[in-house]
Amino acid sequence: MKKILILFSHPKFEKSRVNLSLINHIKYKENVTFHDLYEQYPDFHIDVNAEKELLNKHDVIIWHHPFYWYSCPPLMKQWIDMVLEFNWAYGPKGNALQNKICLNTITTGGTKEVYCSEGYNSFTIKQFLRPFEQTAILCGMEYFPPFAVMGTHNLSDEVLEDYTINYGKFIDLLQDGLDINDLENKSFLNDIPQLKL
Amino acid sequence: MTGSILFEAIVFLAGAILCVSIAKRLGLSSVIGYLLAGVLIGPYVLGFIGEEGQDILHFAEFGVVMMLFLIGLEIEPKNFWNMRKTILGMGGLQVGGTMLLSYLLFIGLGFDWKVSLVISMAVALSSTAIAMQTIKEKGLMDTTFGTSSFSILLFQDIIVIFMLGFIPLLANSESATTSKNHGDQATLLESLPMGFQTLAIILSVVLIIVAGKYLIVPMLRKVAKTDVRELLIAAALLIVFGISFLMEYVGISPALGAFLGGVVLSNSEFKHELESTLEPFKNLLLGLFFMAVGASINFIVIAKNPLTIGGVLITIIVLKALVLYITGAIFKLKLDQKLLLTFSLAQIGEFAFVLLSFAFGLNILSQDEMDMLLVITALSMSLTPIIGIVNERFILPKIGTKESVKRPMDHIAKSQKIILVGFGHFGSTIGRFLRSHGVEATILDHDSNRVDFLRKMGFEVYYGDATRLDLLESAGIAEAKIIICATNKIGVSKAISKIVKEKYPHVELMIRTKNRYDAYELLNLGHENIYRESLDTSLVLAKDVLSKMGFRKYTLNRQVQNFKKYDEESLRRLASEPKREEDYIFKARQELAQQEKFLNEDFKRGVVDYDHHWDSEQIRKILNKK
After folding, report:
1. Cα–Cα distance measured from residue A194 to residue A17, given in angstroms and rounded to the nearest whole number
2. What is the pLDDT of residues A125-168, one digit of tens each?
3. What part of A 84-123 touches B (C-beta under 8 Å)?
4. Which of B493, B499, B413 is nearest to B460 (CA)?
5. Which residues of B touch A20 (CB under 8 A)?
6. How many Cα atoms within 13 Å fall on the side-chain side of residue B305?
7. Separation between Cα atoms, residue B562 and residue A69, nearest integer Å
8. Considering only residues 526 to 555 of chain B, which have any Cβ-Cβ distance to chain A shorter than 8 Å?
9. CB contact under 8 A, B617 and A15
């Protein structure tokens, strides 16, 4: 059973309906570590060694965050800058994260329709997430497509409930050894057959 | 005139005040003023001070004694070791060269070899009193000229000990023990056989060093604990007088004893306190000394032999200047620094009085020889400031060597100095934090136990009352960038802020206050950098309480910043508001009323709800309305 680390990053988690629902459903699962960065490091003073140790103990790293201005909240960027050190995460001797699985779980206000070449955001989510993808590749990790909850501004409680249950199922699948070959080149993990409702 | 001590005191003080203010007004050194006052009130002009001039000189020597004590204080053995090359090299060269040339000069003039040797020793010594006074007045202590002069003078001050030990060996054996020239009561030294005199000198030096370490410093600690300021002044004077008495009893110069005493105490935490306590006494007594020198210029001796005296005077000054110039050249001083050195140390110093009368007491010198040399010494001292002015006004501007622009790193670090007042719980945190960042602050504290402890831990800490200008000055406020008042006594902070604002406006003040009322006061005095000790800690506590209640830490962190910003703004707003109730009885009630006002304001303003960033609720509301 794979161990999962949720690196959660949300400056105002207490006001986030969607993320509260998603997180509350999975945070007490066995072999899941919920790691709330803004609670842990309110002054942005990241304990790099503790973070590395945490990473060492897990097989799957999930960057779970709202999609702010086509990127992650600042503390998560800070985390990437500080924790993924040269010769540890990358570089000639940097193989600490080799072969771990890495992916983003994101929530966006806009719907899937506005994130395409015809939509007002012009680019797809996959395109926007390129920096994360390449970061994972540079660190020798296997990068999976994102699990995304989109259109949160108009999300009904029923649909949110579905997303929440699916997020739980998705964590289970990861733990049971979901393989890159099972993903069939889907743009979103939400779309794999196992998660179809 | 009249024998009244009061009258004499009035004459001296009035003469000093008048002449020194005129000299200062004309842009001259205060030394000239004092010398002029001495000549004026002396036996040959106004005649206020008659034959007793010698006695006054004797008393005034305490000025020199204190000065040497203070110079000794500045020489920490560590610094001394660092400067050993310049001290030995420049000092040795200067003393050796001058002695050789003047020995040849006086032999050539037909003096006995013993007399010539004694005179050449006296001539080799420059006046620490005049040179240091001028250097300090002009603030040149940190220049190469300043340190070179200091090194040379230091070497001289030390070599005098050996000279005094050596002179008895020159004495004519038949008259050495029963000196007919010596008017005072016999000293211990004179009652000793020849070889033992040198031994006695060495013994008393050792005695001072041991007493300094095991008697004086522990005594000062005891005195400091009583927290009565005048007791410390008394103790400082007692040290100087005590050492002087001992040295006089043995028969060597009290000034040398004091110098040694100073060196012994330079490593103690009382260094700056002693310095600032004795400074005012020293300056006045030095003034008295200069006046006595002026008064003792015997115009009758000059009148008898003006050409010889003038000739010898000029020859000696030229000769000393030559040796100094060559010394400066060998040590590669820049031209301007070399000239300053040459002209400021070319006189014969106050130790000549000591050496000459010592030799006179041992029958080495005759009355005529001594009279002539004393006049020459006094005249050469009087000429120094005038030569200095000529150099400064007419020679240096033509050379135009500017002070080098590139300064070594330690100079920059030194000019970025931080002074930290108070090393209690608050100040120590600051001090430790600065130090862990490689920033050393000069620390002033009024708790001698703590000072002692901190010095053991290797901090640069000085004991003393930081509200005194002189203490701040000896702690280097003139070169400081920031002064931190970390004391919890608002009175102390206010006194310091007043001094700094008046005298050193370039120094930035950072002040700790206990509460907002003290902060109001300081804000109204025009100070901006005010740190309420209650603000940060109370907010940290409040933050932790709310965190334990389940609030998110990051949000709380932002709210603390918001609250601080808002509270600082309101503090500045309210500081200018007139305080209606000054009555003490109403103060507590008023404080409560104000707290209530703040709380209501906070509630209405909604400090906690202030932060709308990353809040999707609003967006949802607006979108759903459509």
Report:
1. 26
2. 999 999 999 999 999 999 999 999 999 998 999 999 999 999 99
3. 109
4. B413
5. none
6. 14
7. 24
8. 551-555
9. yes
**Is residue B215 domain-shared with residue B326, that is, in the same domain?**
yes
The pair phi, psi for residue B443, each rounded to 5°, is: -105, 135
Pair A93, A133: CB distance under 8 Å:
no
Whether B205 and B307 map to the same domain: the answer is yes
Task: Identify whether residues B445 and B561 lie together within a single domain.
Answer: no
Decide if pLDDT at B238 tops 70: yes
Q: Is B619 on the interface with A (CB under 8 A)?
A: yes
Same domain? For B228 and B289 the reply is yes
Question: Does the beta-carbon distance from A17 to B616 stay under 8 Å?
Answer: yes
Task: Give pLDDT, residue B411.
Answer: 35
B550 and B526 belong to one structural domain: no
Put simply, the chain A residues between 157 and 196 with a CB less than 8 A from any chain B CB are none
Averaged pLDDT of chain A = 93
Measured between alpha carbons, how far is B260 from B205 in angstroms, rounded to an integer? 7
Handedness of CA A56, A57, A60, A64 (dihedral sign): negative
B408 DSSP assignment: -
Q: Is residue B507 part of a domain?
A: yes
CATH number of the domain bearing residue A57? 3.40.50.360
B295 in Cβ contact with B53 (< 8 Å)? yes
How would DSSP label each residue in B322-351?
Answer: HHHHHHHHHTT--HHHHHHHHHHS-S--TH
Q: What pLDDT, on a 0 to 100 scale, did the predictor assign at position B402?
A: 39
In terms of residue numbers, what domain contains B453?
408-533
Cβ–Cβ < 8 Å for A64, A8 = yes
Let me know whether B264 and B130 are in one domain: yes
Length of chain A: 197
Q: Is the residue at B66 inside a domain?
A: yes
Q: Count CB neighbours of B209 within 10 A.
A: 14
Query: Hey, is the C-beta of A35 within 8 angstroms of any chain B C-beta?
Result: no
In a domain, B560, yes or no: yes
Average pLDDT over residues A5-12: 96
Any A CB within 8 A of B556 CB: yes
Is there a domain that residue B203 lies in? yes
Q: Which of A15, A76, A155, A156 to mutate to test the interface with B (most CBs of B within 10 A)?
A: A15
Which residues have C-beta within 8 Å of that of residue B232, sequence separation ≥ 6? Answer: B220, B223, B224, B273, B277
Amino acid at A90: Y
Judge if B272 and B372 occupy the same domain: yes
How close are the terminal C-alpha atoms of chain B, in Å? 109
Three-state DSSP state, B94: helix
Q: Which residue of B has its CA nearest to A15?
A: B615
Cβ neighbors of B392 (< 8 A, separation 6 or more) are none
Out of B466, B501, B533, pick the residue that ends a domain: B533
Of the residues B476, B509, B533, which one is the last residue of a structural domain? Answer: B533
Query: Greatest CA span in chain A, whole angstroms?
Result: 49
Residues of B with Cβ-Cβ distance to A153 under 8 angstroms: 616, 619-620, 623
pLDDT for A171 equals 95
Total number of domains in chain A? 1
Provide the residue range defining the domain that includes A178.
4-195
CATH (domain of B91): 1.20.1530.20
Q: Report the alpha-carbon distance of residue B256 to residue B93 in Å, rounded.
A: 21
ipTM of the assembly?
A: 0.80
Any CB–CB contact under 8 A between A57 and chain B?
A: no
A68 contacts in B (CB within 8 Å)?
614
pLDDT in tens, B343-402: 889 999 878 877 887 788 778 888 888 888 888 888 888 888 888 888 877 887 776 543
- Strand, helix or coil for residue B581: coil
